[in-house]
Amino acid sequence: MSTKRIFVLDGHPAESSLTRSLAETYAKKAKEEGHEVRLMHLRDMTFDMDFEFGSYKQIKPLEPDLQTFVENLEWSEHLVLATPMWWGGLPAKLKGLIDRSFLPGQMFDTRGKLPKPMFGGRTARVLLTSDSPGWYFRFFLKNALKWQLRRQVLGFIGLKTKITSFAQASHPKQGDVVRWLSTVSDLGARAA
Q: Any keyword Chaperone (predicted)?
């Protein structure tokens, strides 16, 4: 098995969370298997979440933590994003990170008629926690957040994305968390 450069982002804004445990479990197992791993916690990052100007003509300079995020993403062959679903979407700070750092010339090329992704040939795995059961997510929410992440965010910059969901994260049944961590450990071992 060849080694990969893996960037793991814990996208939960709290100090302690199931999402953090999933991210750290993946990173630990991938390292044990010989992969190069960089791990960042959204909680520890300091930046202004507001894109502010509303166009790409006037862009705020990236704060050091956002620069490090971009460098880690550029370095990686595989991104692992662990995030909760809140109110049908991403936590505000994670959305702010994307708004601020997914910029033209850095993540996608706007010189043609249509934007072209700049991260083609790379992969991503989203570890998504939610309180919505799978059937509710699929039939009533139409997998909207999964579609957004797979196509409109990560796919837009070229990352071929797979999503692994863990529900009902706030009130798991006995044994669920142990099973979920085992699933994530297996994904980390395979760099999948």
A: no
